[in-house]
């Protein structure tokens, strides 16, 4: 295994908007980073049209179909982590989407994280965990079919099957969660050090057992693993469970959207927030903010 502790590994999940993806790859291109890209198997992006970085290495992850709120999200993240850890031992592994954008240049990010071993993951509130614990407690057997129906805005008989399935599980008092596990939840975007990344991969069987057929499993598994290990729990950055994306070093605005799409009028807010990434951006809605951030990063 190659020692790449002087580099960041960016785990990039993308599915559309080739031009924006290429801007993002250029912004990550640096002697301080390598890029690991997963293109959704449903994506129409031609991999040959993706820009190749000059200083970073770009690695393509085997493509799978990724469905919202379904275990394929977790599998994609694990596949990216497995690929990156096989290539080398990186300083940090950052999960980002094609709609994210860095707010600091790569030298600044590397300097900021070089001597850290914190685990940067987001935690939602206790109230939100309590409201969504049925997502894990019961088997959700039709998430893929429901994702397709929601995406296409169509009625699906699987919605009826899902309601019947959950009702039966409630009636028999089914609970998949072991009494020795505390479930925690947050956004799936993370920045984690090498030892915790490998700890996650070492527990893939446990992850699948508990979180397969879970609704939105990508929002539970990392937080639950970190919290239930005393050594890693102590290293969670800013562990306040107050739903602040500052905990994962991201600037995400859920007050103005789901989440809000940043525009050029938000430039000062973005460059002064102190975070390393923000989401989300949409080149088709406002390309000027991306171009101005690109210029800012190159200064």
Give structural attributes.
299 residues; alpha/beta; Spore Coat Polysaccharide Biosynthesis Protein SpsA, Chain A; 2 domains; 13 helices; 8 strands; 39% helix
Q: How would you describe the overall organization of this protein?
A:
The protein is an alpha/beta fold. The protein has two domains: about 1-125 and about 180-299, Spore Coat Polysaccharide Biosynthesis Protein SpsA, Chain A (Alpha-Beta Complex), CATH 3.90.550; about 140-175. Helix content is about 40%, strand content about 15%. The strands form two sheets. It has a five-stranded mixed β-sheet, with helices on both faces. Strands 5-8-7 form a three-stranded mixed β-sheet. Helix 1 (about 20-30) links the parallel strand 1 and strand 2 (about 35-40). Helix 2 crosses helix 8. It is globular. The two termini are about 35 Å apart. Keywords: Disulfide bond, Endoplasmic reticulum, Glycoprotein, Glycosyltransferase, Golgi apparatus, Membrane, Metal-binding, Signal-anchor, Transferase, Transmembrane, Transmembrane helix. It is found in: Endoplasmic reticulum membrane; Golgi apparatus membrane. This is Peptide O-xylosyltransferase.
Give a short overview.
The protein is an alpha/beta fold. It contains 13 helices and 8 strands.
List the helices and strands and how they pair.
Blueprint: E1 2-14, H1 18-28, E2 33-39, E3 58-60, H2 71-87, E4 88-97, E5 100-102, H3 106-113, H4 126-132, H5 134-137, H6 143-152, H7 157-171, E6 191-193, H8 194-202, H9 204-211, H10 221-227, H11 230-233, E7 250-252, H12 267-271, E8 277-279, H13 288-298
Subcellular location: Endoplasmic reticulum membrane; Golgi apparatus membrane
Protein name: Peptide O-xylosyltransferase
GO molecular function, one term: metal ion binding
């Amino acid at each position: 295994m190659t020692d790449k502790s002087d580099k960041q590994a960016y785990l990039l999940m993308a599915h559309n908007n080739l031009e924006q993806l290429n801007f993002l790859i250029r912004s990550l291109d640096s002697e301080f980073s390598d890029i690991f890209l997963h293109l959704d198997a449903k994506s129409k992006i031609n991999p040959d049209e993706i820009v190749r970085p000059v200083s970073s290495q770009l690695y393509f992850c085997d493509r799978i179909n990724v469905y919202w709120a379904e275990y394929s999200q977790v599998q994609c993240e694990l596949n990216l982590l497995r690929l990156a850890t096989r290539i080398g031992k990186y300083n940090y592994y950052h999960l980002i989407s094609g709609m994210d954008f860095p707010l600091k240049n790569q030298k600044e990010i590397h300097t900021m994280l070089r001597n850290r071993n914190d685990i940067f993951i987001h935690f939602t509130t206790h109230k939100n965990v309590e409201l969504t614990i049925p997502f894990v407690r019961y088997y959700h057997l039709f998430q893929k079919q429901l994702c397709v129906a929601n995406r296409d805005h169509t009625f699906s008989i699987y919605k009826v099957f899902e309601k019947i399935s959950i009702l039966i599980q409630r009636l028999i008092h089914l609970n998949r969660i072991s009494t020795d596990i505390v479930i925690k939840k947050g956004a799936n975007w993370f920045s984690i050090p090498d030892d915790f990344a490998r700890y996650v991969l070492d527990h893939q069987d446990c992850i699948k057992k508990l979180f397969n057929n879970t609704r939105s499993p990508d929002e539970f598994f990392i937080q639950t693993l970190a919290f239930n290990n005393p050594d890693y729990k102590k290293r969670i950055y800013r562990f306040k469970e107050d739903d602040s994306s500052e905990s994962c070093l991201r600037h995400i605005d859920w007050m103005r959207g789901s989440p809000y799409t940043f525009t050029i009028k938000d430039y000062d807010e973005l460059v002064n927030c102190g975070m390393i990434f923000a989401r989300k951006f949409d080149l088709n809605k406002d390309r000027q903010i991306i171009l101005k951030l690109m210029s800012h990063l190159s200064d």
